[in-house]
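WARN retry 2 of 3 for item q-0093 after timeout on previous attempt; input resubmitted unchanged.
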Amino acid sequence: MMETIVLGDIRIAVTRKAVKNVHLSVHPPLGNVTLVAPTATRLDVARAYAISKLGWIRDQQTKLLAQARETPRRFVERETHYLWGRRYLLSVIKKDAKPAVTQDHRRITLTVRPDSMLTKRKEVMDEWHRAQMHRVVPALIEKWERKLGVKVSSYFLQRMKTKWGSCNYLTGNIRLNTELVKKPKDLLEYVVVHEMLHLIEPNHSERFVALLEHHYPTWREARAELNELPLAAETWGVP
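OK item q-0093 returned
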């Protein structure tokens, strides 16, 4: 049964797991708060921890509510689209040919059949975005496998609503949010490093932070920049 801590107008959903440390999170888009605590932690101890972080919680909620959000893409002529942090104008060509996407230094060109619907245009662009990530991710993983002395079994690309990446340290698999294709490549690299470090340290422990500091000293700046960039136009649910 899930427990709840109420601090004024803030409700915190408490989950108990086999972890070493308490982990507090504020989730987009509305700032829902969750707290994961070690199984044996008393609720009053978890509450005291949450109270000590109350200022941080409110600060994170304020940032999320103020964060820019993309308007829904309609995939029409001269619409703005992003690739690796750069802004492009979309050019739409309608002709009876296999759908395709190409890119030059100024434009992304979407070729679709004359009767194509919005869902089809989105599908074609999503497939192209995945292809762009598949061109970049393997080299990043190989680079950091050498640096970290770990091995990634497989990586998966997935649209995620509440996180940029995840790692299953038992299987050696990592998952990356496909929205990262719209962000600068150095931010993708930060997420890759973050998830691969979980193959060494599964939890967000002091050891994990120390490893991140050692291998990716600018991680705080990367995380801040990633969290300040526009969110996808989507209705986000509570995880």
